[in-house]
Design brief:
By secondary structure, the protein is of the alpha/beta class. It is built from 31 helices and 31 strands. Strand 21, helix 27 and strand 22 form a beta-alpha-beta unit. Bound molecules: nicotinamide-adenine-dinucleotide. Nicotinamide-adenine-dinucleotide binds next to helix 25 and helix 26.
């Protein structure tokens, strides 16, 4: 099968996906169903698969037997790479290796740790493993305390469920709390510990945790850390570890690996718009590996190198280098992976070799197994080249020679503004400083902005910090009707020349504003944190999204402005073009306090209209920043004005004003529907029928079927439901779970949500901050009461007293109950059990809204069904349902979730313009401009 997978990428993906889902399937019928779903539409498959499919479709096979065969095939694949399901069961294999002279490093395969309870269970498994294995293995004859010292490999992400580099100190402290018992036990039993290295995002934190705990365990001799040669950073990291070791007067082990997450790092970092941290060429990694080997060997008094590779060129290089540098045996070791490169281990047997042995069940082992299959089938894999493809010896040991590969990227493609990478120390420092300076400046006075004047009114409203309601963020002037009249007049005047400004220069203002936002990025995020209680990372994403809107709509306008000629006829010219509508009002909510007004405002002005911004009363200071930014970009007076004031009064007044031509609204359903009604009422003096673009609420469901990856599903639901305290229009507040996995899912979700930190939004440890205001808190508490009446509470967590805090709540309810139908805008989740996917989709579709929705499933048929039948504007498969990106996941719904086309999408700007067709007869007395291409 693996050989087949090497030849055929499509088959390889199917095989990986099927193998991935198989162990979690509880029923034989589902195993068979998925087997068919994955393989029945391809004919070019290995015989064994083809026979299986044929028999199944003839109905001649007994499901139980076929399922058992499939299961045992995958199990036998797995047992090649995994030593056993638990230490006892693995003992025979481990003992045999040990007898054969190998040292061991035991890795306990674990599910993604999503809660505190799971983290502590995982730590306990390590203690039990050490207690059982170390004495048992030491007892064998010929055990050499140094050469055969037993090592355990661990991943720090498994020791603290809320690990997050932004919360640097907290993650290190909590990580160490989990690790200490394991260090104590290992010290007592004279075992060693190696920190595995996982994703790049956690790399610096892993190194910092490693150093920090070793500073506590000064006498612990045998601690090590894995470093990945595929990372461009590793040389620097190694140098700094060496100087740390020197300074602390100790020796550490460094396990030098090539790195097993190459595909992941490329995909994820590209998606985020972050620099790709790995070398793109395999030869660069190989060369780096050799250079790092040298660096390790040259510092052998500070470091015990473990050369962990199956590449015989890298191994030979190490052997020769060690000889050149005069290293004696025992000053370094080789490491191989269990079940991979056995011939290599045997060839190296005279030297110290350690085998990395994963132990654990198949479900948690799947991520490991997939990495191994990827490695065996990758085009670049040494094992593949040497054993499967029998590449020539000369080719296998040739000197790595990377030719500098630069990926093709054109300047013209729109790229999302990356969110800030808080695993980088400098970014943590910048946001920390911004939080301090912005807090010092809170409490200022903010005017209206009419024409090009700042107007301070007598009446003021206060914007306060929801985390500390006594803290005033700003005092905001409140507009009167005559201010509104004034600004509409100024807008009409400005429109006369703005409409004639070229699309290029209009777009230019957006690009300049984006540049200004980039400069002020940390300060803007800090402000949102104080004004609307957004935890830092969420606030940072809001600024990135604001920049995206400016850049995206600017580019879109340039596209739209290109004249379009329709039809190619001699003697007739048809032109299709767009002109602005006139004066518009933008009415924005508080929950994306900069991005949503930035999107609506920039769309309005770039299309040639003049816009009056009426922000939410809960986020006027953030919205004011947009005014300042556009002023600094030099936007002409009257094109963008700022008119804060009570929605029901000033908002309605402008909406109903006869001289307003369009309204762009984002907010609740009730207000949206009222605006649509008011706007539909035409005055005698009115020149245009008003256009309303209204983005409204949602009641968003995620379906979990029996083939879902529960680790990912729990995390996806948690982030979608609790991100920004559930106050996103896209937030998940309904989870529909198929019966087979219902119990397990609910239990894990409860523990995971119970582990989430609720606290001040500026605190980096916080995942959930406060609700926006007292009224919101009261409303959410009301829904929690309702939930108690209607269903069974699985979790209810109250918040702290000061500030509008509330913790997550989960209720089991039946379809149709109030809390499963109404938008709640808080961290309240309803869970509903469904019999099958049909019922699940029907429940998901039964709300008034149609905004976002999602499914976690590994069944191609279920995914197909949901794509066809789940009625939402934004459908997400196997990921969170929040965080839509401009230009990539244009956002917006239908039903009671809104009218209009999607924000951040290709049609959005068209709503702010009037299309116009011009047809000119170019024939004069029978003569027309002749163009042979039109014949
Ligand atoms: P809201 O409807 O209370 O207020 C939105 C805006 O409307 C505010 O500026 C408010 O002052 C103004 N307003 C209130 N009454 C008005 C009236 N009678 N006439 C004119 N303007 C009036 O909503 P909110 O609490 O600020 O935001 C939360 C709501 O927004 C949620 O329902 C959420 O789902 C929705 N939302 C939707 C999207 C989307 O893209 N679909 C995005 C974000 C938020």
């Amino acid at each position: 099968m693996i050989e087949w997978a090497m030849r055929d990428d499509d088959f390889k993906i199917r095989l990986l996906r099927f193998t991935d889902v198989l162990p979690s399937l509880k029923s034989d019928a589902v195993v068979l169903r998925l087997f068919k779903e994955y393989f029945s539409d391809i004919t070019d498959v290995p015989k064994i698969v083809l026979h299986g499919i044929e028999r199944l479709s003839r109905g001649s096979a007994v499901p139980r037997i076929v399922a058992a065969i499939i299961r045992s095939s995958v199990k036998s694949l797995a047992t090649q790479f995994i030593a056993g399901t638990d230490p006892k069961n693995a003992f025979k294999a481990l003992h045999a290796l040990s007898e054969d002279g190998a040292a061991l490093s035991i890795d306990l395969l674990g599910e993604a740790v999503v809660s505190d309870i799971e983290a502590s269970r995982y730590a306990t498994r390590y203690l039990e493993t050490l207690e059982f294995l170390v004495p048992a293995l030491k007892a064998r004859q010929g055990y050499q305390p140094h050469r055969n010292k037993i090592d355990i490999s661990l991943k720090i992400s498994s020791f603290y469920s809320q690990i997050e580099p932004l919360d640097w100190d907290g993650s290190i402290e909590k990580g160490k709390d989990g690790l200490r018992p394991v260090f104590d036990k290992a010290a007592a039993l004279d075992a060693s510990i190696t920190f595995d290295m996982e994703h790049y995002y956690h790399k610096d934190l892993t190194i910092a945790t490693f150093k920090s705990i070793l500073e506590e365990y000064k006498d612990f001799q045998w601690a090590g850390i894995a470093l990945q040669a595929y990372l461009k950073d590793t040389r620097e990291d190694l140098l700094s570890l060496l100087s740390w070791a020197k300074h602390n007067n100790r020796r550490i082990t460094v396990r030098l690996v090539k790195g097993a997450y190459w595909d992941y790092e490329i995909a994820v970092n590209r998606q985020k718009g972050w620099p790709v941290p790995v070398f793109l060429e395999k030869d660069e990694t190989d060369r780096n590996y050799e250079e790092l080997t040298r660096l390790l060997f040259e510092n052998a008094e500070l470091v015990y190198p473990a050369i962990a590779t199956h590449n015989i060129r890298s191994i030979s290089n190490a052997i020769v280098l060690a000889e050149d540098l005069g290293l004696y045996e025992g000053q370094f070791e080789f490491q191989t992976l269990y079940g991979m490169g056995e011939p290599i281990r045997r060839a190296l047997k005279q030297r110290p070799v350690r085998v990395y042995c994963p132990v654990g069940e198949l479900i948690p082992g799947m991520a490991y197994l997939v990495r191994r299959i990827l490695e065996n089938t990758s085009n670049e894999s040494f094992l593949r080249k040497s054993f499967a493809e029998r590449m020539s010896f000369e080719e296998l040991i040739r000197v790595p020679d990377p030719n500098n590969y630069v990926p093709g990227e054109t300047k013209d493609t729109f790229r999302n503004e990356p969110s800030t990478d808080f695993s980088k120390g400098e970014n943590r420092q910048k946001i920390g400083e911004a939080l301090i300076t912005v807090r010092r400046r809170l409490g200022g006075k903010y005017p209206l902005f009419i024409g090009d004047e700042e107007v301070f009114s007598e009446t003021e409203t206060l914007s306060t910090n929801p985390a500390e309601p006594g803290e005033i963020v700003g005092r905001i002037s409140s507009a009167s009707r005559s201010d509104a009249e004034d600004s509409i007049r100024r807008a009409i005047t400005a429109f006369a020349s703005w409409r004639k400004t070229s699309p290029e220069s209009r777009a230019g203002y957006l690009f300049k504003a984006a540049e200004e936002m980039r400069k002020r990025r940390f300060e803007l995020a800090a402000l949102e944190t104080y004004e609307v209680g957004k935890p830092v990372m969420e606030a940072d994403s809001d600024i990135a999204e604001s920049i995206d809107y400016l850049m995206y709509y600017g580019r879109q306008m340039l596209d739209i402005a290109r004249p379009r000629v329709l039809g190619r006829y001699i003697g007739e010219e048809n032109e299709y073009l767009y002109g602005p509508k006139g004066v518009g009002v933008v009415i924005s909510p508080w929950n994306f306090p900069l991005a949503i007004p930035a999107g609506m405002v920039s769309a309005g002005i770039v299309t040639g209209n003049c816009v009056i911004l009426k922000p939410s009363g809960l986020s006027p200071v953030a919205a004011w920043q947009l005014i300042e930014i556009f002023r600094s970009a030099g936007l002409p007076p009257g094109v963008l004005q700022y008119l804060p004031g009570p929605g029901a009064e000033i908002g309605e007044f402008i909406v109903s004003h006869p001289d307003v031509d369009f309204i762009a609204f984002t907010g609740s359903k009730d207000v949206g529907l009222r605006i649509i009604r008011l706007a539909g009422d035409t005055h005698k003096s009115q020149a245009n029928v008003k256009r309303v673009v209204a983005e409204m609420g949602g009641k968003n469901a995620i379906i979990i079927d029996e083939t879902a990856d529960l680790d990912e599903a729990i995390n996806g639901v948690l982030v979608s439901a609790l991100g920004y305290q559930g106050q996103k229009c896209s937030a998940c507040s309904l989870v529909i779970v198929l019966q087979n996995v219902y119990g397990e899912f609910c239990e894990r979700l409860k523990e995971a949500m119970n582990s989430v930190k609720v606290g001040p939004p500026e605190d980096p440890a916080t995942f959930m901050g406060p609700l926006i205001d007292k009224a919101a808190l009261k409303k959410v508490r009301g829904y929690i009461e309702k939930g108690r009446e209607e269903g069974k509470p699985l979790l209810i967590k109250e918040g702290e007293e000061a500030g509008y805090y509330i913790g997550p709540a989960i209720f089991e309810v039946s379809p149709g109950s109030t809390i499963a139908r109404e938008e709640i805008f808080g961290p309240v989740v309803s869970v509903i059990k469904a019999m099958d996917i049909e019922e699940a989709v029907a429940i998901a579709n039964s709300t008034d809204y149609a905004l976002t929705g999602g499914i976690f499933s590994r069944s191609p048929a279920a995914i197909r069904k949901v794509k066809d039948e789940f009625g939402v504007g934004n459908l997400y498969i196997n990921r969170k349902i929040t965080g839509a990106l401009v230009g990539r996941q244009p956002f917006g719904g239908f039903g009671m979730s809104g009218v209009g086309s999607k924000a951040g999408g290709p049609d959005y700007l068209l709503q702010f313009m009037n299309p116009k067709t011009i047809c000119e007869n170019t024939m004069r007395k029978g003569a027309a401009p002749f163009d042979s291409s039109r014949l």
